[in-house]
Design a protein that fits this description.
Blueprint lengths: L7 E7 L1 H4 L7 H11 L4 E3 L42 H4 L5 E2 L5 H4 L3 H8 L3 E5 L2 H5 L5 H18 L4 E5 L13 H15 L10 E4 L1 H4 L18 H19 L24 E5 L2 E5 L9 E7 L10 E5 L3 E5 L6 E8 L13 E4 L9 E7 L4 E6 L10 E8 L8 E5 L3 E4 L7 E10 L2 E2 L3 E2 L3 E2 L12 E6 L2 E7 L6 E8 L3 H4 L6 E2 L1 H5 L8 E6 L5 E2 L8 E6 L9 E9 L2 E2 L9 H7 L16 E2 L9
Parallel strand pairs: 1-2, 1-3, 1-4, 4-5, 5-6, 26-27
Antiparallel strand pairs: 7-8, 8-11, 9-10, 9-12, 12-13, 14-15, 15-18, 16-17, 16-19, 19-20, 19-21, 19-22, 23-24, 24-29, 25-27, 25-30, 28-32, 30-31
Helix pairs in contact: 2-10, 5-7, 7-8
């Protein structure tokens, strides 16, 4: 094509793969370079010019109230490109690509943009968000793409389309279906596109997936398992250029990927510092242009060896807040710039600060009850001098859904009802108190299993003596229970006490050999550290080991109650340790007799093999 021809108007319609993040070249830049080398004058058109900028450094936000309007959403499109990008491109970088966008959304927006900007070609890269996060069936995603084509044509009947298929991404735990769904959609698209062309509006397939070095087991072209790194940007641009040459006779040669590709700059952040704040500790540093976020690792000083850190967080701004900490704790931090899953800067030097939070404690006397579609919670305000309470945060987390995200809502009353949860699933529940200083320490509540009421009385309760002062109390697991209460009483007066027991002891104190007082109980939450005993091939028993039963296990009796939230079952029958029952029946224990000891695993859901 002659260089004095009217520029071809090109609109890129895409998601985050096309939008890019601050510091990216983007595949749009690489195909712009290709157009120039091929002598094809083009004008990129669309409502946006930039990439996605990094998040603003902000303090933690309180959980939103149900009555509050949602935080205004806005499109973040003013991020910059790689340093070194041509000024000619920066003046010609318009596009219609938005991070997170689905074809199901773009199909209802494209007609207005086509009517406004009148492109000659639409380069369409959409569908991953529909297949992966929308979990739409491949046929439904295909229908969205076809509707997009029809809507765009309604605004410009002679519009031409180059439509990319969907790339594979690295494996996501719990999404074993994604590679197959991606393949199924791509196959449908390849079969359908030839039927979508009209005489004045041809449609051609871009085989992006086949040209992109990313898949369930590889991420050579993607910095995070999906989004293009410098190589991936070239590969996507090459796939589009190939279709433009072969299907539309634009240019003579497809884009060639250079052998040497410049690495993304990845310096360690500077001005790294930690400062006490009313909410805990604020950690800040100077932003690194083009960073894909930052990794910050944290620990309480003296709690681990110099080489160990107990948590590493990924943040997308140049600020991290340590909240819900205890006064007097010294926290230590290290920081590095992230270039994705593989590329990082060196770690910084360690910085530290001592926390002096001014936050309020969590609510008291939290009571939860499961409902058909969620749960209710009531509580009492905390006691102390911490200023006015703005709201409480009610948090829940689905322990039965891999990869689930926690839910949260703000409440100004001392009661809440949460609905819309999954029946049969167990949810952890916790609350915190928000004041002007921020949110305080979480207060735990009993977990709930939605759609199930009070569990039945535990059955199969029996106690096995492990030695003279230690028993293993075992009972049958019930799927409707979220936890259990273990009751301990003196053997000679439990019948007169019944359910009068009220003191609550932590199970860990018993495991550390501390003597339980008579008529005390232990809370055995299914989400806490528990043991699961395995009898043969039936891992259906729950157990807890109780030590420190001085002077002898035979001085105590035990019972178990089940709960779902604060809905409690009746107590089981009271039992003695097996060895005590044998003695009461006149059976002698001689030297050489064996005591049954069960090897157990640790955790709420483990089912270890006997060893």
């Amino acid at each position: 094509m002659a260089s004095n021809q009217t520029p071809i108007k090109v609109m890129v319609v895409g998601d985050s793969i096309s939008h890019g993040r601050e510091g990216d070249w983007t595949w749009r830049y690489r195909i712009w370079e290709w157009f120039r080398r091929e002598g094809v004058p083009i004008l990129f058109v669309g409502p946006y010019k930039g990439t996605v900028p990094p998040d603003d450094p902000e303090p933690p936000r309180p959980p939103p109230l149900i009555s509050e309007p949602a935080r205004p959403g806005y499109l973040r499109t003013d991020g910059g490109y790689a340093k070194g990008a041509s000024p000619d491109f920066l003046a010609n970088s318009d596009h219609f690509a938005v991070g997170g966008r689905q074809a199901a959304q773009a199909m209802r927006l494209v007609a207005e943009q086509v009517a406004t900007y009148q492109p000659d070609y639409c380069l369409v890269q959409l569908g991953f968000n529909d297949v992966a996060w929308g979990r739409y069936a491949p046929a439904l995603v295909l229908a969205s793409i076809k509707f997009l084509v029809n809507q765009a044509r309604s605004a410009k009947p002679d519009l031409k389309f180059a439509i990319a298929n969907v790339p594979q991404r690295t494996f996501i735990p719990g999404r074993e279906d994604l590679p197959g769904s991606t393949d199924a959609y791509n196959a449908l698209l390849a079969r359908s596109i030839p039927r979508w062309s009209t005489e004045g509006s041809p449609v051609a397939l871009v085989r992006l997936c086949e040209n992109y070095s990313c898949g369930p087991d590889t991420s050579k072209a993607a910095y995070d398992g999906l989004h293009p790194n410098a190589l991936g940007e070239y590969q996507i641009a090459q796939a589009f250029s190939r279709t433009l040459v072969e299907a539309f006779s634009i240019g003579l040669n497809e884009l060639r990927i250079p052998v040497d590709i410049l690495a993304r700059p990845m310096p360690t952040p500077t001005n790294f510092q930690a400062t006490p704040s009313p909410g805990g500790i604020v950690v800040t540093w100077d932003a690194v242009y083009g960073a894909f976020g930052y990794d910050i690792r944290v620990r309480i000083a003296g709690s681990s060896s110099p080489e160990e850190w107990f948590a590493t967080y990924h943040v997308n701004s140049n600020r991290h807040d340590t909240t819900r900490c205890v006064a007097g704790e010294k926290w230590e931090y290290q920081l590095r710039t992230s270039g994705g899953n593989i590329v990082h800067s060196p770690w910084s030097a360690i910085v530290s600060a001592v926390a002096h939070p001014e936050t309020a404690p969590g609510p008291r006397n939290i009571v939860t009850h499961p409902t058909a579609s969620g749960f209710t919670a009531t509580w009492d305000p905390p006691i102390g001098d911490f200023g006015d309470i703005d709201r409480y945060g009610v948090y829940w987390f689905d322990t039965d859904t891999p990869g689930a995200f926690p839910g949260v809502v703000g409440v100004r009353e001392t009661a809440a009802e949460i609905v819309g949860l999954t029946a049969g699933h167990q949810y952890i529940v916790a609350l915190d108190t928000w004041t002007a200083a921020g949110g305080g320490l979480l207060a735990g509540a009993r977990p709930v299993r939605v759609g199930m009421g009070k569990p039945p009385t535990p059955t199969g309760v029996h106690a096995v003596a492990l030695d003279n002062t230690t028993v293993e109390l075992i009972w049958e697991l019930d799927p409707s229970a979220t936890g259990y209460v273990v009751w301990i009483a003196d053997a000679d007066d439990h019948n007169t006490c019944g359910n009068c027991c009220s003191s609550q002891h932590d199970a860990d104190s018993l495991l550390q050999g501390k003597r339980p007082e008579p008529r005390h109980r232990i809370i055995c939450d299914n989400t806490a550290t528990l043991t699961i005993a395995k009898e043969g091939d039936t891992p259906s028993l729950r157990s807890v080991v109780i030590g420190g039963l001085v002077p002898s296990v035979c001085e105590f009796v035990f019972a178990v109650g089940a709960y779902n939230g604060n809905d409690e079952s009746d107590l089981s029958e009271w039992v003695m340790a097996d060895i005590c029952t044998r003695l009461l029946k006149g059976v002698n224990i001689d030297e050489g007799d064996s005591v049954h000891i069960r090897i157990e695993g640790i955790g709420a859901t483990d089912s270890p093999d006997d060893t």
